[in-house]
Amino acid sequence: MKHPQVIVLDADGWVAKQLRELAEEGRWLVRTVRGADAALALARERCASVLLVQVELADEAAARPALVAEVCRVCPEVPVVALADAKLPDAERAAWTAALLDLGARYVLFPPITRPVLEDVVSGLMSATVRRVVGEGAVFAPLPRRANVIDLADEEADA
């Protein structure tokens, strides 16, 4: 059985870093991608997934919102969270929120985006997605250890 995955398309890796601990606890993979094609390819995999897309509202007005729409059309079982990096006036924020929700995003988050907010949104969506895709009470094998990580709590580690 494939592990659930959190697919992150962001500019600097900050979002993925905020979710690493939560993902390890839930035995989910965090898959960071740099392009819309890679994000769509991962969303098409047959496993429980949540997609987080950082939407640059000023620079790429068409590219990433188009990805939100495409994923929602092609993979309706994959919830999409749109994250904006720009601080906007209330009227523009409301307009962008409405547009992204119309395209299929489940949540639209604007600054300040904090780790607890990200964790709550992702854990809720992932729990529902795993129940729907895999079934209630699914248990996943431990994830393989990452290279160059020393676990000081590991009892098998040589002293």
Q: What radius of gyration results from the CA coordinates?
A: 17 Å
Supply the CATH superfamily name: Response regulator
- In the CATH hierarchy, the third-tier topology is known as Rossmann fold
CATH architecture identity: 3-Layer(aba) Sandwich
Overall number of strands: 5
Structural class: alpha/beta
What can be said about the biggest beta sheet?
5 strands, parallel
| Overall 3D shape | globular
State the end-to-end distance.
Answer: 35 Å
Mean pLDDT: 85
Order of helices and strands: EHEHEHEHEH
Helix content: 40-55%
Number of helices: 5
Number of domains: 1
- Name of the top-level CATH class: Alpha Beta
Model regions low in confidence, pLDDT < 50 over at least 5 residues:
149-159
Estimate the strand proportion: 15-25%
Explain this structure.
By secondary structure, the protein is α/β, with parallel strands linked by helices. It has a single domain, classed as Rossmann fold, CATH 3.40.50.2300. It contains five helices and five strands; from the N terminus they run E-H-E-H-E-H-E-H-E-H. The chain has a five-stranded parallel beta sheet, with helices on both faces. Strand 4, helix 4 and strand 5 form a beta-alpha-beta unit. Helix 2 packs parallel to helix 3. The longest helix is centred in the C-terminal third of the chain and has 19 residues. The C terminus is likely disordered.
